[in-house]
Amino acid sequence: MTISKKDLQALKKEIKALERKMDKLIAAAEKNKKVKAAKKAPAKKSPLKKKTAQPTATDQVLKIVTRSKKGVNAATLMAKTGFNQKKISNIIQRIYKQGKIARVGKGIYMRA
Q1: Whole-prediction pTM value?
Q2: Of 107 and 52, more confident
Q3: Which of 11, 55, 79, 97 is disulfide-compatible with 59, CB 3.0–4.6 A?
Q4: Angle, helices 57-67/74-81, rounded to nearest 10 degrees
Q5: Domain with 21 in it
Q6: SS (H, E, C) 81-93
Q7: Pairing state of beta strands 101-105 and 72-73?
Q8: Can you list the pairs that 40-47 forms with residues at least 24 positions away whose Cβ atoms lie under 8 Å?
Q9: Domains held by the chain: number
């Protein structure tokens, strides 16, 4: 079993051909890696938390009045909400006209 010069040259050519194929495969793999990195979606930011709407002054007063079983007066509403007399009386007048509350006695209001 002797190895001739022609056999060695043929083997050398095959090795070079394999080397070129390997270079092409490596280049293709690197190209795919770059493309995938470029296509990668940017990191998503956490969604902004929505600020919950503060209840309006009318909502606050109406909530207190509707919770009351016996009814409330303006002084109680002022103490619980911190609003002044004029603001409380305006709110009461407005929601009374809307029919959401009813007068049960002088200065005492309940839900309608």
Answers
A1: 0.53
A2: 107
A3: 55
A4: 120
A5: 1-39
A6: HCCCHHHHHHHHH
A7: unpaired
A8: none
A9: 2
